[in-house]
Amino acid sequence: GYQFSSIQLEDLIQNIIQDFTHKIEDKKINFIYNKPPAILPKVNIDPSKIRLIIGNLLDNAIKYTPEKGNVTISIKYDKVFIEISVSDSGIGIPKNEQNKLFGKFFRSENAIKTQTEGSGLGLFIVKNITEKHGGKIWFESEENKGSVFHITIPANPNK
To answer: Cα(123)–Cα(105) distance, rounded to whole angstroms?
Structure first.
């Protein structure tokens, strides 16, 4: 089940990033966290579930990006949604496989070559959780150039 509470999203993300510091340093990843200039309104989320999905996207970004590559997390806020983007300079997703990406147990050919471990459940779960929060997820990706995943979460500035 879900347990929603009112949370300061930037703090949660900062926290998640800390969990990945070792992985980031091990691969000498050039990591950037773009926070919005102003403090965001609190969002009504299930923090453990949001931690799971952002952790998943960050983990993928680090995993599929070569040493000394770039990984960036950005947060944008437009009064209606808070958008979180995770971009990487990794292996990217082949065009012919992009439409299958959120399917259950799907793993792309190049992902399997790069990383033998992986359940293929990650993005399926990420999509489910995002939608349960009233948000959506999409991505842009180019093979051998990298990927950007975007998630939106409804912002409730008046609540």
So the answer is: 9
Q: For residues 120 and 102, what is the distance between their CA atoms, to the nearest angstrom? A: 9
Per the DSSP assignment, residues forming a β-bridge with 31 are 71
Amino acid at 9: L
- Joined together, the tokens standing for residue 93 give 């997703």
pLDDT in tens, 97-124: 999 988 887 778 878 777 666 766 789 8
43, 151 contact by CB (below 8 A): no
Instruction: Please check whether residue 33 is in contact with residue 13, taking contact to mean a CB–CB distance below 8 angstroms.
Output: yes
Residue 34 near residue 72, CB atoms below 8 Å: yes
Identify whether the C-beta of residue 61 lies closer than 8 Å to the C-beta of residue 88: yes
Please give the DSSP secondary-structure letter assigned to residue 68: T
Dump pLDDT digits (tens) for 132-147.
999 999 999 999 999 9
Contact criterion met (CB below 8 Å) for 61 and 87: yes
What's the CA gap between 53 and 155, in Å, rounded?
18
CA dist 28 → 32, 67, 70 (Å): 12, 6, 9
